[in-house]
Amino acid sequence: MTLHVDTPAPARPRAPRRSPGHRGSGRGGGLARFDLRATPYFLVSPYFLLFAVFGVFPLGYTLWVSLYDWELAGDKSFIGFDNYISLITDAAFWNAVVNTLAMFVISTVPQLVLALILANALNKRIRGRLFFRLGVLLPMITSVVAVAVVFTQLYGRDYGMINWFLGLFGVDAINWQNESWTAWIAISTMVDWRWTGYNAIILLAAMQTIPKDLYEAAALDGASAQRQFWQITIPMLRPTIIFIVFISTIGGLTLFTEPVLFDGNPTMAGGATGQYQTVAMFIVKEAFRDFDFGYAAAAAWLLFALILIGTLINYSFTRRIGGNK
Amino acid sequence: MLNSKRHGTLAAVVVMTAAALAVTSCSSNEPAKNTAASGGSASEPVTITVQTFGGGANFGYKKAVETWNASHPNIQIKHENPTDRFEDVFLPQLLQRLQAGSGAADVVGIDEGAMGLMKARPQFFADLAEYGLDKRKSDFPAAKWENGINKDGKLFALGTDIGGMAMCYRKDLFEKAGLPGERDEVTKLWPDWTTFMEVGKKFQAANPGKSDPKFLDGPNTLYNVLLSQEAPKNGNVNYFDKNNQLILESNPAVKTAFETVKTFSQAGMTAKLASFTPPWNAALKKGGFAVMGCPAWMVGVIKDNSGPGNAGKWDVAGVPGGAGNWGGSYLAITKQSKHPKEAAEVLNYLTGKEGHVMAFQEANAFPSSIPAQEDPAVKDLKSDYFNNAPTGQIFGESVKGLLPVFLGEKHAQVKTSVEKVLEGMDQGSIPYDQAWQKFVEAGVKAAG
Questions:
Q1: Do B278 and A73 touch (CB under 8 A)?
Q2: Where in the cell is it found (chain A) (predicted)?
């Protein structure tokens, strides 16, 4: 395995030792060989060490905690899989799952479609192309907290700008936090505002790798721009689309900051009846509001499973994009 | 680079956690560093960290700490106030540090609502009797003293402020609605909750428009006022009985408070705001409502949130239905403190007459200490922001004859959960006829 790594660089300084005499002494050669074999591992180890400390260990520890009735700064006792069993029958948990999935769908689908349209537009010869390309990235560099705070004020019931605008058309003030679907929409707009441009730029980069002669050949055959888009661009983008769908799935299912700040205070309740409580919020609420560590750890593992399932489902969908048409 | 995309949300969480950790480690390192430095010789000054919570002037310890530090070169107080939120920020952090065995301050503030929880965890706090603080018993009303004794029967916390109870109201809005504006007349207007309702009807009739102010802010403040009055009438318990069994459903105090809130909400007299949220703050500033249940510390909250532009518009009147207490806090010494003896001196000072009086002047935190209550600086204090209302006298009256109310180990969690249901009912996401059932369910779940 190690020999696959590029070795010339470490090998070069050893060059003068190539004399048979040195090789005969064995010891130096062994050290060199050890060096040759060990160095690559040594060089890649920081990542794996950090991953072990901040990735593998918490994962394992969470699993261990999830098997206990573990109260923060209190008693703990081993209860096996009881936490998982009560979670599966806990309506509040499923409410959080439904909210998370709903917001994932409401935010991600328009986001990716919009990103695709944007990327296609930015790929054309338009005036001020650089300006627009940089412009769509701007929301990305805004702090997520700032975005959520500003949007929450825009959606304010009494003094919010959106209700003021709707009021011009005679619409009664909407209490956006009050109903599930209004809250879902409000939170989804925050997510979309921040991430659409980012996806567009990734798709744009992928579009630019598509060979131009494909389009020229299609144009010669009389394919319209729309047809070129569906028959060439989309299929060629497939790996990139799979990638952004994966990343969006993980991000969408761990949605946290926006709904927390939308609530106004960090109780993690997600509205009076949990109208927009996500699974991530549910976990934090159980662990740090109700001090039930074991239960929260079990919920974290179920979220992990949920993300795996979600990613697999999305993969099976996206791999068919532009398949056998 | 690429896969940092959606990790953005993840990253936000990570960053938040990291920030929380950073805060933890900063605040935890400093006392450790100081104690390490001072460990060598006795002549070097000892630093005692005091951590409290609350917005604005919070515990009102600025002047008290400066005064102490000026006269005690060997024991320096370092006062930190990391957050304005107790239940959902300060308390979980404190518990984590207690369990970790490091990072907690020497002296920590604890809100009344979490005293049940802390009483059940005697292993984390120093026994104050070891430092002679059990002699302070006669300084405090029984209600405050008894709550500082843990399940092992040891004294672990002494009282800081006490809530008391009054009503804060917008004088200008009252006069605009054709109601009397003077505080004594207003107090006479509502001897009980029935007459309070009548006043509300009159106020609302004069403010029929959609954007006109409402009589009350929302369900939370009203509910807490009512519960604080009802609990002493029903065995001095609210969500839990003295064996820590949940009695939410059977305690008439809870039911009465709930039903009264429901009546006011149904009558359309609330601005449908949950307290301590940004919209609530905005409404305080813009005059979105006229009356609010007002323990002493709330006076400071109103002043900070309404801003200087509303000075003189607010006033303080008596509360319908008699005395009660909402809130108030305690100071305790953590067992992990390296200098419990010096910490005890600091605690003794802050909960003593001098500390109490300064805190009252600074943050309107009404003293639980009896000598401080009787001090002219407290008794005769008037609040210029509140139209020169004699807050010292009003709150002093309201805490006379206060009885100790038992709060269970999970009081804070149950309180947060059931009040969420009240908010939902008020704002319309829970129908009125299902609200009590949801209220009980939420309480049972939080207690479980």
A1: no
A2: Cell membrane
Q: Cα(A322)–Cα(A301) distance, rounded to whole angstroms?
A: 35
Domains of chain B in sequence order: 2-162+328-367 (3.40.190.10), 166-327+382-447 (3.40.190.10)
Distance in Å, alpha carbon of B446 to nearest chain A alpha carbon:
7
Inter-chain CB proximity B282 and A269 less than 8 Å: no
Residues A101 and A243 in one domain: yes
Give the domain extent around A282: 84-318
Nearest CA to B365 out of B4, B10, B52, B134 is that of: B52
Same domain, A104 and A237: yes
Q: Does A39 share its domain with A102?
A: no
Selecting from B2, B13, B99 the residue whose C-beta is nearest the C-beta of A73 gives: B99
* Sign of the CA dihedral with B224 first, then B227, B228, and B229 last: positive
Residue A70 lies in a domain: no
CB neighbours of A317 closer than 8 A, spacing ≥ 6? A245
Q: pTM surpassing 0.90? A: no
Are A273 and A184 a contacting pair, CB within 8 Å?
no
Determine, for residues B427 and A175 on separate chains, whether the beta-carbon distance falls below 8 Å.
yes
Q: Which string of b and e fits B188-202 if b means at least 16 CB within 10 Å?
A: ebbeebeebbebbeb
What's the total number of domains in chain A?
2
The 10 Å CB-count burial string (b at 16+, else e) for A90-107 is bebbebbbebbbbbbebb
Q: Give the ipTM.
A: 0.75
The pairing of strands A76-78 and A68-70 is antiparallel
Per-residue pLDDT of chain B (448 residues; tens, 9 = 90+): 333 344 444 444 444 444 444 444 444 333 443 443 333 344 678 999 999 998 777 898 999 999 999 999 999 999 999 988 888 889 999 999 999 999 999 999 999 989 999 999 999 999 999 999 999 999 998 889 988 999 999 999 999 999 889 999 999 999 999 999 999 999 999 999 999 999 999 999 999 988 899 999 999 999 999 999 999 888 889 999 988 899 999 999 999 999 999 999 999 999 999 988 888 989 999 999 999 999 988 988 898 889 999 999 999 999 998 888 888 999 999 999 999 999 999 999 999 999 999 999 888 889 999 999 999 999 998 988 999 999 999 998 888 877 778 888 899 889 989 999 999 999 998 999 999 999 999 999 888 7
- CA quadruple B137, B141, B142, B145: dihedral sign: negative
By the 8 A CB rule, do B251 and B198 touch? Answer: no
Residue B127 amino acid letter: D
Residue A147 near residue A193 (C-beta atoms within 8 A):
yes
Q: What is the 3-state secondary structure (H, E, C) of A248-307?
A: HHHHHHCCCHHHHHHCCCCCCCCCCCCCCCCHHHHHHHHHHCCCEHHHHHHHHHHHHHHH
Is residue A72 in a domain?
A: no
Nearest CB neighbour to B423, from listed A73, A179, A272: A272
Residue A323 falls inside a structural domain: no
